């Protein structure tokens, strides 16, 4: 069963270049040129992990060539615009650290410093959390925790002062503002001003629990628990992670172990089992168990989800293997896009695609954790 995965990933890499990847469906559909972005960043990080765990240099060599095409000698990143204050643009910076260590080229450290400068100046809510983007004032999205905080933790460990206090505090604020204790889950977004059209006027939260947003958050926490090397910070992050993992496990589909696009409304008309968020939850469970943060039984739950994705959505179609069931994109606003209102109807209306890296990358990340868990 897993042989299909190796074949699939190799094909995607061979069909991709820095100017056009086989996994960035948003760019392909829009006919847009290549740029520095979180979608490719997710995939590059997954490929580095796969290269590390399998020993196959194909994937790491591809990542090095890809990043080299964007990072200039002075550390400037081609197509990156820090003035947008877009947290999504930070995520790809995570691969700069292993490429820097691999090549010894200082331009990658310079590029990391440039991204860190954006975070130094990033607008914040009154409570101190990063705005998701400049065009989303006072808004905190779960997605943004994944996009910014693991990079920032890596930067602190590799080039900074190993000060994780602000990272932990921002996550604790998310727990305080965006967690629904009755559902045991987190809402997609929060508007600290409580003025945007999609926000509840009292809580400031969006209306529903979107699977991939929860997946981003869970994955960020799992990664931070491996990156952060300060005991007090780990002690504060761990219960937030273990609480979420225990709660979301209750929502798994009994037959596949997968999770629904709108997590707590499984069985409602139009809802569907979605690949990207399911892969993220499975990855977080497997990694949490490997790190000893979660009981070992979570590794079994994560693998059940991973195998369920394979059975349902990894298919040989003609001569090619395809991974389906991936929500292309979902967001909240901005004001001139009232369709993105956080409603149930909205989340199930977005296109479902094949082979997009927002699903493929966490699927590969999950695969590396499965490989790690196999008997020697």
Could you describe the 3D structure shown?
- The structure is a single chain.
- By secondary structure, the chain is mostly helical.
- It contains 15 helices and 8 strands.
- The protein has helices spanning 3-14, 25-30, 38-54, 57-68, 88-91, 96-103, 106-121, 142-158, 165-178, 211-227, 231-248, 275-290, 297-313, 344-347, 357-373; strands at 139-141, 179-180, 185-186, 189-191, 314-317, 320-323, 326-327, 352-353.
- The strands form 4 sheets. A two-stranded antiparallel ribbon has the order 1-4.
- Helix 8 (142-158) runs parallel beside helix 10.
- It is globular.
Counted beta strands:
8
Overall mean confidence score, pLDDT: 97
Low-confidence stretches are none
**Which topology does CATH recognise?**
Glycosyltransferase
Distance between the termini: 19 Å
SS-derived structural category: mainly alpha
Largest sheet: 2 strands, antiparallel
């Amino acid at each position: 069963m897993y042989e299909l995965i190796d074949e699939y990933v190799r094909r995607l890499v061979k069909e991709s270049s820095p100017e056009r990847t086989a996994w960035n469906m948003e760019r392909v559909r829009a006919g847009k040129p290549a740029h520095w972005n979180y979608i490719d960043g997710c995939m590059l990080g997954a490929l580095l992990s796969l290269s590390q765990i399998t020993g196959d240099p194909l994937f790491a060599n591809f990542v090095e060539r890809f990043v080299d095409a964007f990072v200039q000698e002075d550390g400037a990143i081609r197509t990156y615009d820090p003035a947008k204050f877009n947290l999504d643009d930070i995520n790809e910076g995570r691969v700069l650290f292993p490429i820097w260590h691999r090549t010894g080229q200082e331009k990658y450290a310079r590029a990391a410093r440039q991204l860190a400068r954006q975070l130094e100046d990033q607008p914040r809510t009154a409570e101190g959390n990063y705005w998701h983007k400049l065009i989303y004032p006072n808004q905190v999205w779960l997605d943004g925790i994944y996009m910014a905080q693991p990079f920032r933790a890596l930067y602190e460990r590799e080039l900074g002062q190993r000060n994780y206090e602000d990272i932990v505090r921002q996550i604790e604020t998310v727990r305080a503002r965006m967690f629904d204790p009755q559902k045991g889950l987190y809402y997609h977004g929060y508007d600290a001003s409580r003025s945007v059209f999609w926000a509840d006027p009292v809580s400031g939260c969006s209306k529903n629990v979107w699977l991939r947003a929860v997946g981003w958050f869970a994955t960020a926490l799992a990664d931070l628990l491996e990156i952060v090397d300060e005991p007090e910070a780990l002690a504060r992050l761990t219960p937030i992670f273990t609480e979420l993992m225990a709660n979301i496990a209750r929502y798994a589909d009994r037959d596949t172990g997968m999770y629904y696009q709108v997590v707590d409304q499984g069985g409602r008309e139009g809802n569907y089992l979605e690949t990207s968020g399911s892969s993220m939850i499975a990855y977080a469970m497997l990694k949490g168990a490997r790190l000893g943060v979660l009981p070992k039984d979570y590794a079994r739950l994560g693998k059940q989800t991973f195998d369920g994705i394979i059975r349902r959505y990894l298919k040989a179609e003609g001569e090619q293997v395809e991974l389906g069931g991936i929500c292309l994109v979902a967001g909240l606003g901005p004001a001139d896009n009232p369709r993105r209102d956080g409603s149930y109807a909205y989340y199930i209306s977005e296109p479902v695609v094949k082979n997009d890296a927002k699903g493929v990358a966490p699927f590969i990340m999950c695969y590396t954790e499965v490989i790690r868990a196999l008997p020697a």
